[in-house]
Amino acid sequence: MRKILFPLALAALSLAAACGGSDSDAATGTAPPPASTATAEPAVTPGAASATAASASPAPLATAVVLKPTIEEALSCRVPRTGPSGQAGQATPALQRHDLDTKLFPNAICNDGSPAILFFRPYEGEANRDKWVIGLAGGGACASPQECADRWCGVDTNFNSDNMSTDFAGNASAADGIFARRPENPFANWNHVFVRYCSSDMWAGRGASLKVSATDPSTGKPVEFAIAMTGSYVIDAALATLKQGPGIAPLTYVRTRTTMPDLDNAREVVFAGGSAGGLGIINNLDRVASGLRSGPNPPVVRGLIDSATPPDHAVLGWEKSAACIESGVCSRDAWLKAAASRDAAGLNRLLDQSCIEWHARNRPGTEWECIDTTHVLQHHLTTPYFVRMGLTDRLISAEMIDGGFTSAGKPLTLLGFATLVHDLLEALPTTVAAGEERAAITVAPGVFAPSCPDHYTIYANETVYDIAVGVGGRQATFFETWNNWVAGKGPTVAVSSGIRTDKCR
User: Fold this and answer.
1) Taking CA 351 as the corner, what is the angle to CA 53 and CA 241, rounded to the nearest 5 degrees?
2) Lower CB density within 10 Å: C or N end of the chain?
């Protein structure tokens, strides 16, 4: 079987469960970090992140990160070898590239040490000056040193070095989907920011220099290299840049010679992400919102989570899964505990802090549950959020079906997958209202879930504007449902009741 993302079972390690950044990747949960033999930072447990990390705009770091040798230097292969990628679309003026300043933010780097980047375009119309959409890209993940080596070389995966580096990123990014200047789009004329994903860690890593060993996929020879997995730091650096912190000039959009406003003056912010980016929103939404609200005029912050809500792993049968057969990981709890152990070994992922604190206070010893993004979504995201998910997502469903999971004692099928996703999303507002942090949640989540196979949808016009769901005898679009949710009037949950595996509606 060709791996969509990475194997569901890693020998004696953990269940890999993650997502992606194109229509050729999948999302099934949260991936564990690569095993490391040494780290540049002290190992911590998932709940040991400092309070200052939650501000989303930390003080610039002073020490440069040196990766020696880099993954590129250690391996004999690279895919793509030439190129640029990520060129602009044709619909509306493109978003412009900006490399994050690694002198100010040395941890804002990709797996290979190249600088992390964002793309931006200023608002149109004075009424939109202080309104922002900040999007996180997807792009898969790697869950072990060998997975990272294979990923770099494009071996047995839909990803390659382009998802781990910005060397060939191009100077512009398409302005489609939620970034399109179209009348149906409530964000059409806002400030637009798209942060490229190159850390392979679900936007949660804080491992600046992980020393690892693997086998060169081309030569079969053992290699050692240092890899950075610092997605959480990249988010921090991007936000600090947009806030125009000390030593940071406003970003200037060359096409119109206009500058981006100061994010500190924002009145509304939508923090969005698809697939791996969607899991990045779950991992970071509350801390980013807290940081944005720390100023004198706190903005309204909302999350948009796309293609990142698979069936709850707790309701699946694991006994016949590849994870159980090959690695002895035979339950959701065993998967999470293994992932927590690997976090403590070096990656130091920054997870939802209120989840960690709630479990430490109410059920000590179960903090590992906060690695499960579905658990966080149902119980611990206190910032208002909206979910977009295709019930028959072709990539997530394929990974889970091929992974050997069962439902009600029978092998998981596409229809069974869709039914489980349908039930989870339709019940989501009720689940959240009864959840572990229910007292802190003031807005029930909104949902748009067509019976569609498309994955990673919010940055493409055809999957944002051309899809509707039947609700109350009429067809509701994604943005109609979003606008209802923002206004606090129904329907705010649009989940397709007629699940079809042969039709998108």
Assistant:
1) 40
2) N
